[in-house]
Amino acid sequence: MRRHNSAMVLAEVLRRPGLSRAEVAAATGLAKATVSSLVDRLVAARLVDETGPQSATGRGRRGTGLTPSPTGPHGLGVEIGVDYVATCLVDPTGGEHAHRVHPGDNRGRAEGDVLADVARAVSGAHADAAERGVPVGGLGVAVPGLVDGKGIVRAAPNLGWSDVDVAAALGGDLPVLVDNEANLAAVGELAAGQGIRDFVLVSAEIGVGAGVVLDGAVRRGTHGFSGEIGHVCVDAAGPECSCGARGCLERMAGPAAVLADAGVRTRAPLDLALAELVDRLSEGDDRARAAAHRAGTLLGLALAGAVNLLDVPAVVLGGGYARLHPWLAEPVAAELDRRVVAARWSPTRVLASALGARAAVVGAGQAALRAILTDPDTYVRRVTTA
């Protein structure tokens, strides 16, 4: 019962910062004494701060305002990319801190060596948290591959991984959440607040994946394997993909394909090659613009199927696609208008990710933090009995 009530109280403070204990009690229906006791525990665990007396609004005694604590437990986000490892810290108010990117080509490397690098990056993030004087409450890890409901990376073709237990490898005393990078990018996009609760986010780094968000929640499918839009066929006679099929979106319109079509050499980190492509596009280079238009058309073809199936009002271009949004949006929208059955009555918006390349690592931190904020009593017991 206390676990349930703690979650109710914290949810109310998160929803309406500045409420007093009495106002939280009124909003939740809990007894004032119960709320006061629970708030004391949340304050002691640094999940909630007391802001001082509220402004006077009548003759009664002024209550003490309550607000989420920016110095409370932070979510530590990690993204294992093909050519980098990124980390960041996310505080209980949603603030992002200490975003770091460690370049390095992880293709073909032994998984243990990559995870050793990840562990070092995590240690560095812990040092950042210690310097800020804040605790780390949990770890979220974004991986470019199939991640099942138990957090096992079943397949990450662009890393060459199969059946890797990332959480066990990282170990430690903190809870570890592992998920597909596109799913966690969608979590980050939700937190960024573009005012949409239903969308498909398609994220492109080396590979292409999608996060499906319906009614404000990421939908992972029965086994956790949803969102593999990169392996939707857009040309049955196309070239062979790393998955073994032919004509996959990732193979035909992923960043490597766009760069090759534009005559830009693919190199690590991918960000450098994309920067050169953006420069060429901005300068009006015909070959670069033709490559982007072709990729946008194929991307729109794949997304039209998703929109017809899910009836979402928006698609969000993330990762490398976010940087190319000015040149991809028009051909994507044209395909959506042409192929989505309901386009005449409800046209689909084509948006750029608010977080761009940071979406997955920020979303990983958000996911780790959300596990605490939705079940604060478990965190309080963990830190008070340690």
UniProtKB/TrEMBL annotation:
<feature type="domain" description="HTH marR-type">
    <location>
        <begin position="7"/>
        <end position="51"/>
    </location>
</feature>
<dbReference type="InterPro" id="IPR036390">
    <property type="entry name" value="WH_DNA-bd_sf"/>
</dbReference>
<dbReference type="Pfam" id="PF00480">
    <property type="entry name" value="ROK"/>
</dbReference>
<dbReference type="InterPro" id="IPR036388">
    <property type="entry name" value="WH-like_DNA-bd_sf"/>
</dbReference>
<comment type="similarity">
    <text>Belongs to the ROK (NagC/XylR) family.</text>
</comment>
<feature type="region of interest" description="Disordered">
    <location>
        <begin position="50"/>
        <end position="75"/>
    </location>
</feature>
<dbReference type="InterPro" id="IPR000600">
    <property type="entry name" value="ROK"/>
</dbReference>
<dbReference type="InterPro" id="IPR000835">
    <property type="entry name" value="HTH_MarR-typ"/>
</dbReference>
<dbReference type="Pfam" id="PF12802">
    <property type="entry name" value="MarR_2"/>
</dbReference>
<dbReference type="InterPro" id="IPR043129">
    <property type="entry name" value="ATPase_NBD"/>
</dbReference>
<feature type="compositionally biased region" description="Low complexity">
    <location>
        <begin position="64"/>
        <end position="75"/>
    </location>
</feature>
<protein>
    <submittedName>
        <fullName>ROK family protein</fullName>
    </submittedName>
</protein>
